[in-house]
What we know:
The protein is α+β, with helices and mostly antiparallel strands. The protein has helices at 2-15, 19-131, 137-250, and strands at residues 268-271, 285-288, 294-296, 301-309, 313-321, 324-334, 341-342, 347-351, 361-368, 371-373.
Amino acid sequence: xxxxxxxRFTVLCLCFCxxxxxxxxxxxxxxxxxxxxxxxxNTLNQTLTVKSDTEKHVLSQLDNLNQNLTRLNEGLxxxxxxxKQHQESITKTQLERRQIKAKLSEQQYKLSRLFxxxxxxxxxxxxxxxxxxxxxxxxxKNRHIHQYFLSLRQNAIKTLNxxxxxxxTLEQRYQNEMSLFQQRQAxxxxxxxxxxxxxxxxxxxxxxxxGHLLKEHxxxxxLRKNEAKLVKLITxxxxxxxxxxxxxxxxxxxxxxxTKLLWPVKGRVKxxxxxxxxxxxxxxxxxxxxxxxxxxxxxxxxxxxxxxxKGLGMLLIIDHGEGYMSLYGxxxxxxxxxxxxxxxxxxxxxxxxxxxxxxNVLYFGLRLDGQPINPANWLKAR
Length: 382
């Protein structure tokens, strides 16, 4: 049991720290957190600046792309007009082709008739000469007729060749115009598809950039809110720390309150300091008091423990500085939590039971550097 009591007091000593040290440590921790958040804010601001420049660059490129599309659309109208002119020219060329082809067919037909007529006439004159060898007076006339037919044939062939050459030239022009027309159509369609693809890529990149910017703006807003809260907390802690220091300087040190401490509750002392208990001795006093009586703080300080502890039930401990602490056990309910500051005579708990055999009591003890001291030497006489 002595080992258990020693362990209990060791745990209590490790859990409790002076008020000023706690406040200063809390302030330093909060300042470190604030510095970390401010560094994060600076980094995020730099990232947002870079991404804002990226967004501006993307928007600028998108604007240039839209201008290119506008010019392309203007070119499309011009190309459509050119295509229409090509179609009209092709239609005209096709009409000329049909006309020349018809003319060529007609000339071919006339030339064939001329050849047939000339052949038949020559054959007739030859037969006539054979039948009548003395008809040489017709030879001169036939010679003139023959030359006339030859002249007609040459003219017809010449005209036919000219028409054929025109047809071939027209056919070549038609093929060239169709080839150029198809090339322009294919090139225009390719450029239009490339620009549309590029525009879609830029729009996707812009959407992604804006999404990142929105997310980081939200993160920055959250960090700034945390920064404001931490600044407010630091200001509060600085004021609190200053108040604590000023109060500590004004207040009488606990070491000078011997025989001046307030009783935590009214009642009869049931067990005195060092009285025997089942396996050890009492390291404080036990006061009989009605159930749920308000328990008062004997002196100003900070709550450093407010939880159940084996052997003392629901326990509350106040640190008064200089290594002094006051303990209040066997409570029914605690009115304070760890970290709270309490003033002298402030209600901190409500009394309860020790066990079924010993009801309606309060344990009150004092410690100096973790060692028990007799509360009777510190409480006011009554």
